[in-house]
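ping. complex inputs:
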Amino acid sequence: MRKTKLTRDSFHVFRANARNAYKQSEQRPSVLICAGTGCIAGGAMKIFENIKSECESRGLDVYVGLKHDTPEEKSLHIKMSGCHGFCEMGPLVHIEPMGIMYIHVKPEDCHEILEKTVLGGEIIDRLVYHLDGVAYPKQEDIPFYKGQHRVVLENCGRMDAEDIEEYVAKGGYAAFEKALFEMSDEEICKTIIDSGLRGRGGGGFPAGRKWDGARKQKTEQKYIVCNGDEGDPGAFMDRSIMEGNPHSVLEGMMIAGRAVGSDTGYIYVRAEYPLAVSRLKTAIEKAEKCGLLGDNIMGTDFSFHIHVNKGAGAFVCGEGSALTASIEGNRGMPRVKPPRTIEHGLWAAPTVLNNVETFANVSNIILNGAEWYHNLGTKSSPGTKAFALTGNVVNTGLIEVPMGTTIREVVFDIGGGIPNGKKFKAVQIGGPSGGCCCASEEHLNLPLDFDSLKSIGAMIGSGGLVVMDEDTCMVETARFFMEFTQKESCGKCVPCREGTKRMLEILNRIVNNEGCLEDLDLLEELSETITSTALCGLGQSACKPVQSTLKYFREEYLRHVVDHHCPICNKEKPHPVIDAEKCKGCGKCRKNCPMEAIEGTVKNPHTIDPKKCINCGACVGNCPFGAITAAEEG
Amino acid sequence: MDERLKRVAEIAEEHHCAGANLIAIMQEIQSEFKYLSEQDLTLVAEKLGISTAKVYSVATFYENFSLEPKGKHIIKVCAGTACHVRKSGPIYDAIHDYLELKGKSKTSADGLFTLETVACLGACGLAPVMTIDGEVHAKMTPESAVELLKEIRAKESAE
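pong. complex structure:
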């Protein structure tokens, strides 16, 4: 067994050194390049390489002859941070201590940034974020960030994600130390219960009650499992936390381990997040090397080890029992509950399973107390929540706001509204398990918290907010989600396996303008059956997108099933045309047209008025001479 | 035993031949050989002391495992919500047409490309996105996607 050498005293020494080093580094100019998935795709690594190589090559020059003239150059600091959340504007580069943020930086800008801003203190206007003619060189002034309240994401993008010293210098692992030496297991659970922290993965179950339930289990072996299988399309909060501040997740898990009496933790990350996997692995290695993870941590009898498991592409593994099955090396299929995970989880042992964001909240609660946390957010949903704001909105990215912030504030104040002068139509919340809310005043003023969203048939889910403009057909959107769920259904229970398939067939029919009015009743009936009989959360919530769109956007369904023409889906679709040479002017098409869109006199060629035509195709089928060509999908 | 199976056996042993590591073992085999062959699966089952049926059941359950050989370059078009809303569908269609894929086939006739969709990559701010061999390409259009593939194809034929 590997005993850690770290003691409480040596941890304090370690922290003091880290703080000193950090303080010194704070004085120096430093360049932070966002190295989240989004910015890397935009070329952040190239920028990092450029700045680094330029610093290095010039650093050598400095050492040779210019040492005393430009001391600041020698001590230049380049770091790779995690996601800032402003992915749309990436790649992002921060220059500290001036606090300047540059957007859309290109590799060829590097030289200028070093020369003018870092060394010269001059702001390059071209690279600064502009809105309505105003320049915002500082991150905190940008409206996108101003409306936010960052707790979990505070350090994402502000520090080197791979540097444990910096995390410790900023107060990291102090909560763990407090939990280890100054609090009993019962006290930790009580603090979390009192804080009202609710599971951020979607369910909203009080985390403290979970912990306390597992604590009371009288089994030797217990497990802490962190759910990083963020499968909801359109959600990437957990990815950003794992990439940007991996130690906060580890610390939360360690505190949970101490509270529950567990010595082993697992983090299950989806395979689509390779960077998150590598950052977490590095973080674990560094924590082990420091002695913060291992056996008999800081000389106590508490030991803790964390393993990272990579998912293999199954959405259903976000469900607790499916996730533990997957860690065990099985097909990730949910099982009937009870018994619940806290009694019978991983390898049949009591298990605390929480989401990444939930664990990332823990250290702040332990340090600042339950009351502090309760003062954020609303009474029943305390704290803040991270959302991924995407879709047809000006500022897409990662945001964190207190629970209870209204949809209007998020979409219009932080998100900056809808681009290209389009009209706002809907927000889809909570991915395939969530619903849509519409542009009504009531919905726009709806506070984003667990209970308010439930009341309109949506749910917070893991926190994906996809904004849709007037060019989005809601029926098509519902079909998209149903296709997703149908594909991801694990096939264990009949309602979900068969039900989603039938639902998708009906929705496909409707989208193709081949549905009928009765289909809508059928959809409603099936939705109710699946919701009340499916085995797990995936099935039970699979129909939410359909139910909520049927409720709030029924007229769009009617356009598909009654008019057989959707002004959005069929916008480009050409109307049928009458071939004047073939038309004998019999008038049959005119009589059969439901919209009275065909004009003409007997024995003379007829014409179709495209403004009135709804592409129903009645004329095409009725023409005895084959003079009308059917409209093809545009 | 051929080289490939030797390596498969090694991978299984590196994971202590533990049943719990089945997924990790298959992931590693796939990352080296791009797909799992029947022989691979039989050998893994033997090494781990579990039935071939069990190995097969796990391999077919997860989206990421492929039991068929893939093309040299793997293209993944994101089918997440944000990408969908920003019209990723036409990008997939354009690539599909460019590669002249027919029926259920996902790999181009020259074996150069395999076209897949992927559930959200979490790069929604850059929607629509696609990856080629793991590298993320942001804000794609049907034209720019096909352009990228043409470049790769030109490079390949030059070599």
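Chain A touches chain B through 54 residues (CB under 8 Å).
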